[in-house]
Write the structure tokens for this entry.
Amino acid sequence: MREIYIRPSWLVIMLILFTVIVFAFDYSAEPLKYEDTGQNNQIAPEEQAIDLTQFPNSEENQKCFKCHGQSKYSYENTEQGRMVNEQMYSELIISPNDFYLSNHRSFKCLDCHSEEYENFPHAGILRMEYQYTCMDCHEGDEIYEKYHFEDINSEYKKSVHAEKLSEEFTCWTCHNPHTYKINARTNENIRETIIYDNTICLDCHSNYRRFQVLTDRERPNLITSHGWLPNQELHIASVRCIECHTEKTSDSALVEHNVLPKEKAVRNCKECHSTNPRLLASLYQYEAQELRSHEGFFQGITTSDSMVIGANRNYLLNIISLLLFAGVIAGIAFHSVLRIIKK
């Protein structure tokens, strides 16, 4: 009788298992969980260990941060002849660490605020002082021409925010001048950019108190109003609000500011899930440009996180692929066990 050659089945099984594990880790399509990264104005004790003296004007700014950088402040009540501790209003707390990581870290507090703030207690009339906006400093400035402030301001004036809220809504309504920093152009982690930008929107649209400061109308329930959207949690975690709620008019800005009325928001899946998605013209624009310049068009598209049908991984297809691999492994394992038993 002809001798039957028995293959090392365990080796085959180990190789296939290794392949599946690598595939699963490399192409995992598990949805990103949304986390609220809104800055808590309470300053953590460990933050105090950072050396802030390396930053310009830090010594002079410390006069302000002595009170506004803490959850409480102390002063001498000359009428009663004693020291008093007071709690600082959360809206007035500014983390020195956040400030010195922001775009305006080289400024002195008194560059934008009246010098009268050096006196304590602050005069109530100072609350009425004019608050500078981006255009007061950056309009016509050649140094910052690449950021297209004029184009952004022009687009903003067309937005529903400018139309309905007028002077009540300024740059600082969304972008805190003490903590704002460029994100889309500098952050290589696209998911962090999504969370950062969406938090700006959610700080008002999911915060009753802030929403009521701007308008008396009832705050809409975001979950209900987006009920038509499939995989709502995945979309919120993977796409910025402005991708569907703004109109793309130029390539000069990475963030569009012409926020449209809700009736004009994008509801067509093909706008993003197509071979020419709007996400490549907005959210993934900067990343796509960088990848294309280094790796070429096709490689840049397939290695990015943009959702191009036929070019990128798909959550459902990933599951089906893993099930097929599991079935193959089970079949080979069953066949190998039978051959070993019958040896």
About this structure: The first helix runs from residue 9 to 26. The first strand starts at residue 72 and ends at 77. The beta strands are 72-77, 82-87. The CA atoms of residues 26 and 35 lie 23 Å apart.
